[in-house]
Amino acid sequence: MTKAGKYGVTRRTFLKTAGLAAGAVAFPCIVPASALGLDGATAPSNRITMGFIGVGKMGKGHVGSFLGDPSVQILGICDVERGRRKGQAARCNRAYGERYGRANYHGCTDHADFQEICARADLDAMLIAVPNHWHALAAIEAAKNGKDIYLEKPLARTVAEGRAIVRAVRRYGRILQVGSQQRSNRAFRGACELIRNGCLGTLKEVFVNVGGPPGEDYLPPEPTPEGLDWDRWLGPCMWRAYSSTLAPPESFGGWPEWRYYRDYAGGGMTDFGAHHYDIAQWSLGMDGSGPVKVIPPNGKDVQRLTYVYANGIPMYHGGGHPRAAVEWVGERGKVRVNRGQYFETEPAGLKNEVIGPNGIHLYDSPNHKNNWLEAVRTRREPICPVETGQSSATVCHIGNIAYWLKRPLQWDPASESFVNDPEANRLLSRAMRAPWKLT
Amino acid sequence: MQYGSIGKRVITLTLAAVLLVLPALADEVLEEALNKIQYYKLGQDGAPMEYVIGRVLEAQACPGTRAALADRLARVLATDSSFECKKFICRQLYIIGSEAQLPALKPLLTDPDYTSLARYALKNMPGEAATGALLEAAAATTGPVLVGIINDLGERHDPAVLPMLATRLDDRDAQVALAALNGIAEISGTEALRLLRQALAKKRPNAPQAYLACLENMERATGTPATSAQYAFLYNGRYSDPIRMAALSGMVGTGRQSALPAVLDALRAEDMRWYRLGLGCVRRLTQAKATRTFVNLLANLSPERQADVLTALADPRTPERGALDSARKAALRAIKSGDTVVRVAGLRALAHLGTGDTVAVLANVAAVREGEARTAARNALATLRGADINGIILARLETAPPREAGELVRALSARHAVEAVPALLKHAEAGRLETRIAALGALGTLAGKNEMKPLAKLLLQTDNDAIRNATRGALVSVARRLPADQDPVIEIVQAAQASTIPQQVASCFSVLGAVGAPGGLPVLCEGLASPDATIRRAALEALGVWPTGAPLDALFQFAKSTGDKAERAAAVTGCVRMARMPSQRPVERMVALLADLLKLSDDPVIERGVLSALSGLKGPDALALASTFLGDQALASDAAVAVEKIRKKDYVATASHGNNAAAKALDGDMRTRWTTGAVQTPGQWFQVDQGYAREIRGIVLNTTPSKGDYPRGYEVFVFNDPKDMGKAVATGTPDSPVTKIIFAPVRGRYIRIVQTGSVDNLFWSIHELRLMGAMEKAKP
């Protein structure tokens, strides 16, 4: 048996076949010579072929970013909204047409069905930027089809859905990067390194500033726009009539508000919590783990939602310095960090502290997207792998459950369950509308 | 007394009555809320639902009220309530429901319109009765409803469900058969595995995926890991690549070395997906035998793959790897490779695999190689971990050849090896020139207050320019790092005062100027009065680069008094530079100083600098001085900019709409704007108060970034009395984003632009407004 035979149709063979016999395969790809590495550009063996699931505000930003990367070729776009998917596929074809000098290039195709695009044999990797209630189903489908994954944060809508993603990714030997891109930012990493190396002395408390929990959906029904597969948009969620607040048209331009409703997401807690709690977890060395208690505010002695870690360190939702997304307070001072390279310490000189080679050096990724591509090529773990995404999102989810139930909860990070609390544990997963299932 | 006793009784009775009535009142409110919810439709007021949610959340922690409330809610399900109502109730039962509510939920389970709602309520409901209800429903339904029910049954992990699922494997509905397959995998166990083996033999779609999931679920449930053979069964079968890859990943996950041959195959595969998977396996298989096997494979791989495998072997996330020495030796062999890719990969691998023994070879590579190899060797030296790496580097430094010594010193600096400072100082003071310079560079990073004195001494004593420059650099770096309360330049000041040799004093002044610490200022100002030109000019140069405006007066006095043209020019240049810095000095004094500076120089560069300084000021004096240049052909455009900036500081903008953002039309930033935030209609206005009356001859309204937002018609008024705008000085109907309005020069404090046009759907915006003074050219 030859190597190629043993390992089935190779991607190189596939690309060549597709180039020679475009139109004869399921997804017609006109692959120019340069895509095959014949013009001195990135060779196909190193080029990552990508598909996109979800090209709304976030997804189309990613399309632009990956289009500019010659080591990547986007071959498919999937969205439940026809105009969006066709528009982004046309955008890719225009860009590649210009790059390859082929006005009629149409190697990037559009798909209405995410299972169809995941089944494509010519794709190495998928970028998934869909509303949170779709994260698990799309990511698991991609993993089952042998695709590496860039998944927008938060990892999933519930703790159980996140765990299902973790299992599928590991079961199928896939690379998954969560889009918590603050990990690939120097200021955030620098702040976390100071904490991890004990530069604040004994850590006393951590403040994390993100939005609040989600609310209920009483939005008025509206006529479903032409071109949108609303049933698919809802997917595993219970039926409701279309709302432009949840799924605004392309012209809206802002961030769609599905993120603020419990059926689809976890409110501000998961939206920015997946960034800022993620940083707090990183700084505490808690990736893959988490707090052991979560106490909601009671208007008396507890003014803020409070997480408590096994070592006794409290982490508060809100509070701290107004400019900081995350503020750490220790016996020797304070560290504050936020987007826009805001990185401040008290005393000021603390942030210039040099960590020697024997100190703790956190994973250094200067660029989140490139870090993922490197991980796809070399199988080195990306900076925000699936387990990390799961533990960070879980911090947000259990905070939401504590807000919801309005009572203190004990959490076991290892088993991902509330301790002796069947009522709270019921809220860790939700039934999915048929035929959708986490498998 | 009696009255008091009656009073107490009344209070007690009232309290009792309230306590008795409160629950009744609450139930009344609940009933009212449920009545409203019964026919609820989306878009209606959510307040009744929020009330019920509050009650549910209160009840969930209290078993007694929980059961009663759940029963009450379930009764609503049996009515002709709306879909949204049933959905809402099922959501609440998801939180507080129990077996007692099954009678209300069962009818919904088999109803295609409501099944997903009932399943939501049943999700995670404890008890066999819930499973029984699902099984009962499964027997009574088909199609998508059955699929959903089977999905939930699987997730309840009850082996009693297996027989029913087994019968469904042959269902004519492919979705039902698939759900049964997944359900079996979810329940897992020996019987489930047997069923899935059968499904694999029958080549049922998705059977391999279910089998893989089942293996994993069994491990989770029983703690017994799957065997390598259970995965190898799939790997060796004729399955799709993703399945075989998952199987190989599973084999590796068992930790058994039996996966090694398959991993080696993957590493040699032509298909990059297999190859990449193989690389991942290299990272995961960390036993000594695996490490040696991968090392032995290297010679048979292409240079690129050798580099990848070496990198994988040196993954810092797997420090527990066995036979690390074997990997280290492979990396050391790689750095001698004729292929750059392999060589660099070897050096990068040594950053994680290297030990003290590796220091010499890395230093040598850093010294003799260039490009990527040098960078990799330097990084490796900087990051080598170990208890005494710094000590080994220092020891090696004593005997290393010059270039290598330089690299070792560099490494100490990069490693922030403060314990090496005494040795570095020794190397800086004597020895080979290259090493001395390198040591001084490292001291700049590592030295502290204690080293300032010996470094200052070295600065004075050396007669070698290269050493002097390097020492100066080190002193500046250290002094800049020291906190202000440690008087960071005292040693330099003392050295300058102690020396009588002009060149030595000049060196000290150079350090003081570059550091810019207040402690250095007096000695530098004294230096301006030195009879020695070397010292004087060094002081002048140091003060000229001072980071604050503190020496401004001293430099100005020097400029006025010196007879040396070059020294005066240098002093004036310094003064102009400082005049542009933020200052507490009164504006009139600053303007007067700038005017005096102009008298000391006719250099156009100085004049431009003065205009630039003026543009940072405000008020009539600054405006008048800047305006004197408007007639100068060479400086007119700089002057116009300065005049505009000075004027704008006095402007106060107001507007009929969007008043809070009116200042954005005057902020000099085209990215910001004032806008009405409403469609253009006649009567909207934008006004500028100049602070005092001035003559103007035109206005430019720039709306370029919001191109449609130019005014469709305008009238311009220039006036002094806010109660009497007088007649319009200009009117027009623009048709482009830049509106130039020119009129006969007119004097006034206020300028108001009134909208006279209208347009559908477009706001009126101004990104930037410019008033043209009487002496300005008509250029917009």
Fold and architecture overview:
The complex is a heterodimer of chains A (439) and B (780). Chain A is α/β, with parallel strands linked by helices and 439 residues long. Chain A has 2 domains: 3-130, Rossmann fold; 182-213 and 269-428, Dihydrodipicolinate Reductase, domain 2 (2-Layer Sandwich), CATH 3.30.360.10. Chain A has 14 helices and 15 strands. In chain A, the strands form 2 sheets. In chain A, strands 13-12-11-7-10-9-8-14-15 form a 9-stranded mixed β-sheet. In chain A, a hairpin with a 4-residue loop joins β14 (409-412) and β15 (417-418). The longest helix of chain A is centred in the C-terminal third of the chain and has 20 residues, at 386-405. By secondary structure, chain B is an alpha+beta fold. Chain B has a domain at 651-773: Galactose-binding domain-like (Jelly Rolls). Chain B is 61% helix and 8% strand. The longest helix of chain B is centred in the N-terminal third of the chain and has 37 residues, at 2-38. Mean pLDDT of chain B is 92; it is low at 1-6. At the A-B interface, α1, α7, α12 and α14 of A face α2, α4, α6, α8 and α10 of B.
